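Proteins fold reproducibly. Next comes an illustrative record:
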Amino acid sequence: MAYSTEQIFGQGVRRTQGEQSRRYNLLAAKLIAELVKNFLGPRGMEKMFIDVLGEITVTKDGATLLRKIDVEHPAAKILIEASNAVDNEVGDGTTSVIVLAGALVEKAEELLDMGIAPATIVDGYLTGLQICLEGLQDLARKLRNYDKEVILALAITCLRSKLISHISFEEKMIAKLVADATCAVADFANSRIEINDIKIEEKIGNTMDTILVNGVVIDKTIDNSAMPRAIEKAKVLLIDEELEGKRTRIDAEITIDSPHQMQSFLDKEQLLTSSKVQTIIRSGANVVISQKGISTLAQNLLSRAGIVSLKRVKENDILWLKKATNAKVIRDLTSGVIPIEYLGHADTVYEKFVGDDKMVFVEGCKNPKSVTILLRATSKKLLDEYHRSVLDVLSVIRNFIVRPCIVGGGGSSEMLLASIVRKRANSISSREQVVLQKFAAALEEIPITIARNAGMNTIDTLAHLRTKQKSHNPSNNSRARWFGIDAIKRKVVETYSQHVVEPSLVKEQIIKSAVEVTTLLIRVDDVVLAKPALNIHTHADGTRHSHAGGNEKHDHYFDKLGKRQRPAHHFY
């Protein structure tokens, strides 16, 4: 006896099975790839996204756009999650993984049309992945992780595909600045670097005014106008204690019987504050930076002693100051003594205008374990994109420091791997040979897309690349030649000699993630949709949700009252 979907799963549940569900999944993945494909390469385009609140995002980063858009199809969500995974793991290659996954999906459709079983396609793709990983291990050139020339080349290559290089026209200046920042805080001996030790401060202005500070820039002003505007040979004291009357976290009452008691209470409070300030003065510190408040009385006493103070500094800034100045945070000033090892040191601490605002610079720290990149751009939208670009570069350099192996950029490594996969395919007599040949063709989609975005003829470019690779076969030479796309000059070049290089760790993660997500989509042959699409709807205030009767005209109490606060189960 045959049962329908509604009899088994209940009313409103939809189900697609077999080839139809697989085709829908592959189509959704291809559409996501088409969305971000023209990001790739130095000549790639930017996209503008405007959300429901009118917030504008201008970006050239695949992961940033995909995180912004709201997709319904589960296959598209899986592809976006793969891009996010690459971003979280290696910090770069988010567009490449989508383009490669889209190419693998397209080739999988062609193989399905040829009558090749999905299981055979999956096995072939996994074999291709293994060949690529082995090939990368053999081809990657191992270097010293403290080689500053290689670090600079990696930074320049990464920045060339970012928006910052097109607008500033000074990619080398920005790249050198980021490379110097990483070298300042990296632990090369242990192959470690903490990206969070590099503070990125933003201010609207001219991009050419972007600078690296060997210390910390604090978006604050000096507390009192009577204090010096600059301190040479600064001795920095970091405190996490109130230099003002304490405020209780709960309601408190003080019973006063006479005006004398009131005055006595105030005198006691001022005496305690003065005592703490005297402890600071005796320590020899000439710069005091507090995470909490500093009263007017304390500011006056400090200014008379020629001491600069900053109050209510953010906790993150205190952490950066600790690492930059080698200071320790003191949390108790009542003991009357501050050990000398608690003081940090900097050449200068000064206040100056940056744009329309004043900022405090703690600069000239010796062997700082935290530095600051002060980014400048003409608008907040550009600053956000610059910030994302710098984070990508920092991640690329971190990958090299952790594993100092590099490969050629500009699609050259994909071309080399494609030729290796084709060679291995010729030794296989089963249908897997055809799958591997399609896998190799999908790898070539990376350089083809870079060439297409640069305005080059893709057919001529691909033929030229294959000819170059064949004439310089790695098996006939001691070292492979990395022929790829120079999108700036619009021609095929030997990218490694042009210092267009990438970490092999990034390439490995891109290929792994693309193959894994593609094989997952190919394996799925049954999709059960628990909620009917008609019940998913959006209200005038931007609330998007699903419930019974959602396909009919209705409203909610938050529509009638115009409330912005929504119940917990309502979300964007």
